[in-house]
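Researcher: Sequence recovery benchmark, item below. Answer with residues only.
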């Protein structure tokens, strides 16, 4: 029923029943705090000193025997409103920050009403009060099942005859009346006792208390004017916004708003072995997957291995369950270990992992998972059957999110044909286990997809691209997801430590052509030393790579470099033979002419020098072409 209609019925019932007055006396001697809270639960405010001397108020006040002593009434009154006071944005009340001149809070004293005068008496410890309820409040029982014998809404009234407070039903089916100062009874039209409340501290039945039904069973029931679906009832009867419940900041005096804060509500017939479905529609249920890669801890080319530190994040809905009191912000809606263990959770497996991989949520691994609920839809309609007001969110609109960090090794088939100018593509292949793609499918999570938090430039590689490829339907019958990592090798290392060294070594080897053509030992020793150093460096490079059946670019360059020095050694041997032959021929001609023969050191070896010069020019051209080819290939790849 609409609130305006209920309010109209309450106003009409208050005019037709017992004398209703907006001034509700609280005729019990107690402290100011108790009276202020009690008046607040009734939806009113304490009267001010000036209001006590009004005739109709004074008539009510002086008829309260508990509050009168020697024709003098003691009443608590409202404090004077101060100008420029600070307002608490959460409660809407003024903050009591004022202090006296000596640093103490100002003392509040009850007012004494005698004849038409009002005075203060600070010696009294207890007094009564009169609550000014300007508009009738709608009170409801929360925690009761629907029953045609009692009303769902009540209004507060004061019976001047019996001088008691009572609550009248909106349809006059039932009335909540006091038997004494601490005993309340909910009576039907036939005066049948439906509920009873007894015990100390029950001057008002408002708040969350233990009631006894007609069968003698104790039940926790809340009776308050808190708006159903938007406010929470504290045990004392005050109301706070429902959003303040379970927000990790207590707002009720007894902190009951931070109790019973379990997020999950699972029906008794829930089966965790069965995945959620679309019912008879035959549509596979989606599970949204995303990845967060923290770092690539190692990229081992020789072992064909990729080591990754990463998070897997799975998000799905389950229409069979519901959630309670969700807050804005996924991190504020955690699921406990027991709650996530009671649910169906998707399990991923690896197809190219180098060790065992288990993403199943179990008792042994549940502590490693971070489980939360993402609030998306609105809360369902509030129910009067809940004694603790709950905002229920259906599972078909709100997401369960489970994520966990993993450290794992993946097999990566490196293609080293272009090494060291290669660009590699490695895969992290996952598949959904335990259910086929006819029941559950993987989909890319559009809210997060894939993120990389590590450095782009690594020790030996540079990350080019990371993408996520999700295939809902595959030939194997199970959905799969693949993280594709593209990275290229940093070339500056090989420029400085491989190619530059080999170019310098080749230059040293070719410089042996500058030695005298007849100095065979120095020329050969230089070329031989260069060739040995090249061989050692080539072995170091090969040891850092896996054995392949094909040639790599670096193999061609190293092979050409090494063979160039072999050619130099062969050329030196040829020049030595040519020098010996040329000198012997010169020596023979000199002897025939009976001329003096020059020594081998003094002979000029013209033919050998000409051919040595031609070889030096060819070597310079070779070095230039070698460097140009190196630059061109590195730019093209």
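Model:
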């Amino acid at each position: 029923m609409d609130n305006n209609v209920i309010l109209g019925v309450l106003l009409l019932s208050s005019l037709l029943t017992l004398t209703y007055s907006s001034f509700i006396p609280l005729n019990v001697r107690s402290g100011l705090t108790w009276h202020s809270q009690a008046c607040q639960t009734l939806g009113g405010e304490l009267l001010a000193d000036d209001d006590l001397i009004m005739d109709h108020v004074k008539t009510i006040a002086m008829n309260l025997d508990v509050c009168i002593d020697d024709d003098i009434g003691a009443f608590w009154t409202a404090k004077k409103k101060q100008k420029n006071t600070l307002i608490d944005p959460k409660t809407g009340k003024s903050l009591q920050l004022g202090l006296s001149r000596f640093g103490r809070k100002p003392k509040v004293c009850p007012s004494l009403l005698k004849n038409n005068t009002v005075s203060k008496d600070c010696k009294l410890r207890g007094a009564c009060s009169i609550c000014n309820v300007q508009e009738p409040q709608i009170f409801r029982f929360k925690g009761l099942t629907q029953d045609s014998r009692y009303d769902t809404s009540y209004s507060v009234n004061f019976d001047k005859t019996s001088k008691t407070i009572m609550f009248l039903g909106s349809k006059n089916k039932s009335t909540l009346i006091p038997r004494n100062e601490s005993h309340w009874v909910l009576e039907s039209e036939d005066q049948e006792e439906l509920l009873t409340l007894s015990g100390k501290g029950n001057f008002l039945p408002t708040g969350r208390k233990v009631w006894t039904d007609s069968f003698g069973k104790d039940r926790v029931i809340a009776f308050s004017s808190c708006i159903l679906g938007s406010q929470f009832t504290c045990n004392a009867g005050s109301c706070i916004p429902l959003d303040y419940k379970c927000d990790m900041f207590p707002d009720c005096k007894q902190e009951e708003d931070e109790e019973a804060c379990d997020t999950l509500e699972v029906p008794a017939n829930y089966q965790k072995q069965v995945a959620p479905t679309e019912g008879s529609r035959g549509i596979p249920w989606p599970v949204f997957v995303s990845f967060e890669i923290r770092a690539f801890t190692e990229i081992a080319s020789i072992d064909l291995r990729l080591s990754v530190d990463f998070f897997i994040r799975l998000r799905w809905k389950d229409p069979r369950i519901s959630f309670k009191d969700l807050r804005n912000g996924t991190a504020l809606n955690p699921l406990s270990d027991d709650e996530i263990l009671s649910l169906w959770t998707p399990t991923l497996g690896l197809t190219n992992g180098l060790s065992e991989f288990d993403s199943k949520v179990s008792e042994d691994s549940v502590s490693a998972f971070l489980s939360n609920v993402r609030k998306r839809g609105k809360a369902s309609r509030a129910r009067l059957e809940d004694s603790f007001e709950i905002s229920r969110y259906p599972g078909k609109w709100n997401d369960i999110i489970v994520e966990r960090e993993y450290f794992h090794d993946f097999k990566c088939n490196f293609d080293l044909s272009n090494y060291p100018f290669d660009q590699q593509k490695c895969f992290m292949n996952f598949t959904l286990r335990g259910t086929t793609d006819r029941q559950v499918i993987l989909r890319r999570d559009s809210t997060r997809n894939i993120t990389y938090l590590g450095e782009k430039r690594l020790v030996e590689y540079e990350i080019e691209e990371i993408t996520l490829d999700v295939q809902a339907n595959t030939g194997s019958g199970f959905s799969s997801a693949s993280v594709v990592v593209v990275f290229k090798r940093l070339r500056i290392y090989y420029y400085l430590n491989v190619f530059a060294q080999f170019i310098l070594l080749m230059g040293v080897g070719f410089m042996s052509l500058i030695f005298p053509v007849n100095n065979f030992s120095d020329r050969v020793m230089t070329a031989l030393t260069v060739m040995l150093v090249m061989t050692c460096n080539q072995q170091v490079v090969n040891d850092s790579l896996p054995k392949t059946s094909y040639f790599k670019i670096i193999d061609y360059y190293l092979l050409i470099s090494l063979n160039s020095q072999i050619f130099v050694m062969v050329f030196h041997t040829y020049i030595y033979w040519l020098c010996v032959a040329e000198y012997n021929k010169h020596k023979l001609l000199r002897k025939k002419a009976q001329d003096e023969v020059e020594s081998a050191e003094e002979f000029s070896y013209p033919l050998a020098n000409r051919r040595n010069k031609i070889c030096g020019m060819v070597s310079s051209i070779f070095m230039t072409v070698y460097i140009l080819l190196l630059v061109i290939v590195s730019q093209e790849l």
